[in-house]
């Protein structure tokens, strides 16, 4: 798999920082990603929900891929697994688009 846990964490951090800047809390330096997410939830709950949805969808998509590789099924998905992958990919993309749209970007 080309995406690593580091990449997942980096995407989570980038999303949190983008949202926190739009919330108006510019100084997120030296804050853990979970602290930034909590601050967003407190200041703008609807954006916090969108951020959480994106984080969860991205993580679930990644964990699915990781599990497929761990079982040696990369490139050999059954119809059910392929459909599951498509659903997870769609959820990831839709949650990302919803977050971007809410931020007005």
SSE layout:
Blueprint: H1 5-23, H2 33-43, H3 45-70, H4 79-103
Helix pairs in contact: 1-2, 1-3, 2-3, 3-4
Please state the overall shape, judged from the principal axes of the Cα atoms: elongated
Count of helices?
4
Roughly how many Å apart are the termini?
29 Å
Order of helices and strands: HHHH
- What's the β-strand tally? 0
Strand content: under 5%
Write up this protein.
The protein has one domain. The two termini are 29 Å apart. The chain is built from 4 helices and no strands. The chain is 77% helix and 0% strand.
Observed structural traits:
105 residues; mainly alpha; 4 helices
Compact description:
The chain has 105 residues and is mostly helical. The chain has helices at 5-23, 33-43, 45-70, 79-103.
């Amino acid at each position: 798999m080309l995406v690593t846990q580091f990449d997942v964490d980096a995407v989570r951090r980038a999303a949190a920082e983008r949202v926190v800047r739009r919330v108006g809390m510019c100084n997120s330096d030296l804050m853990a990603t979970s602290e930034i997410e909590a601050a967003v939830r407190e200041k703008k709950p609807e954006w916090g929900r969108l951020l959480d949805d994106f984080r969860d969808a991205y993580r679930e998509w990644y964990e699915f891929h990781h599990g497929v590789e761990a079982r040696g099924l990369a490139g050999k998905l059954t119809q059910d697994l392929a459909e599951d992958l498509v659903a997870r990919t769609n959820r990831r993309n839709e949650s990302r688009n919803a977050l971007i749209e809410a931020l007005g970007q």
